[in-house]
Write a structure and sequence with these properties.
This protein is of the alpha+beta class. The chain is 24% helix and 33% strand. Strands 2, 4, 5, 6, 8 and 9 form a 6-stranded mixed β-sheet that branches. The chain binds copper (II) ion.
């Protein structure tokens, strides 16, 4: 609207030449810029998609073993003990040299699938020397996975 008024003003001002040469192109630019700006604002104000991240170690880290400290981070959901079935809650799992668990599947319990059902947010594990993958998997109060979107995988080297 602003530009239409400006274009009108140009015509009224008697600058017929200018109005004929470029009345439309700048008006379109103005509109596109205005829309792009408001879309950016919408994204900035949007609710974050929940996610988990390794606070420690970082992806690609070379760490001294065999004891490796792991710190879990979660955004957009809350850590709760096993048995808690409130919406938006769950507990961390650490999967060593495996991968994420499909949404709705129960996270196995074995030497490579560790549960942190007391709501722990860090642990220390023992890893043999070499390259390993670590996967965090968030799951609900009955250990049912929230799926790949609530997982994170890093690769580290233990020396
Ligand atoms: Cu569990």
């Amino acid at each position: 609207m602003k530009f239409q008024i400006l274009a009108l003003a140009l015509i009224v001002a008697g600058s017929v030449n200018a109005a004929e040469k470029s009345p439309k192109v700048p008006a379109v630019t103005e509109t596109v810029n205005g829309k792009a700006g408001s879309v950016t604002d919408d994204i900035a104000g949007a609710v974050k998609v929940p996610s988990v991240t390794f606070i420690e170690p970082k992806d690609g880290a070379v760490v001294t073993g065999p004891n490796v400290k792991v710190v879990f981070g979660v955004e957009g959901m809350k850590v709760a003990k096993v048995g808690t079935m409130d919406a938006g809650t769950g507990h961390h799992h650490l999967i060593i040299d495996g991968g994420p668990i499909k949404r709705g599947e129960v996270v196995p319990t074995d030497a490579n699938h560790l549960h942190f059902g007391q709501g722990q947010t860090e642990t220390t594990i023992q890893l043999p020397k070499g390259k390993h993958s670590l996967t965090m998997q968030f799951a609900d109060g009955t250990h049912k996975s929230y799926g790949e979107m609530m997982s994170s995988t890093i690769h580290i080297t233990v020396k």
